User: Fold this.
Amino acid sequence: MEARNIGVLGAGHLGKIHIKCILESERFDLLGFFDPDPAIAQDVEQKFDIRRFDSADALIEASQLVDIVTPTISHFDSAAKALRRSRHVFIEKPLTTTLAEARQLIDLAREANVKVQVGHVERFNPAFLAANPFLDNPMFIETHRLAQFNPRGTDVPVILDLMIHDIDIILNVVKSPIRKVSASGVAVVSETPDIANARVEFNNGCVANLTASRISMKNMRKSRFFQKDGYISVDFLSKETEIIRMQAIETVDDPFAMIIELGPGRGKRQIFLEKPEIKPINAIKAELETFQDSIIQNTEPLVTIEDGYRSLELAYQIMDKIEINTRVIG
Assistant:
């Protein structure tokens, strides 16, 4: 299946970025878009010179692939319509607003026998792609995802808005069931938590400490993965990766080498710092093209609908813990 014909549902801030990426790709034929807001629709129609569909149903009917970039609250209805017409679906994160909706979409996708990919775009961040080959059973992970205040996105808790990116990365890296979740958070400027911290403990002993805030003075998107004999630092914002490794040595030839003395009878270790080459890519364009590959080759999407469900499930566990702690404090 060639799977070139694609339609975009939702043309807000992120929808416009998707439209631009699709137009820049030589692999798609963008049939058009639908957005219920007349002002947005008119602006996009004129700016990109593409067809404006009169309804979501009409766009879905015309498309082989449906790219859903609507507000989260309408993800389920949009995706369900597309899946019931056996259309392949790319859907932005978070998958849905509830776990029940997510489970229904999984069932619909299986019934339709189509591909669904969830837009956890940080999987395609070039800094993470460079770090991935070096990740080897990390046992402590620390993430900070901080953003300056922006009213856009405050309709959902910061866990679903920001932290869910790191939740997906951690669940992708740590191949072990979750044993325990602890969390706290505070609603500062909106009705839901604007800053939150979570501690996730896995059965294999790994611990992940996640912090997310949308009321910070500066933007930050950093993760550090600690594992035996070193750690990996990933800056998702500046797209830089550092690999710090320790290796046992007997003699030191380099006078400038970083050496750690482990104590009497325990030898020495040399510290090596590597900065792997970061290949610049357009992450959104890459995830859409990778999704197309899974359709053509009949392979599993890189970020499956089940991945999206697991991330949403952990996000809700974190939010439940915050709610419990808030009631106890209150």
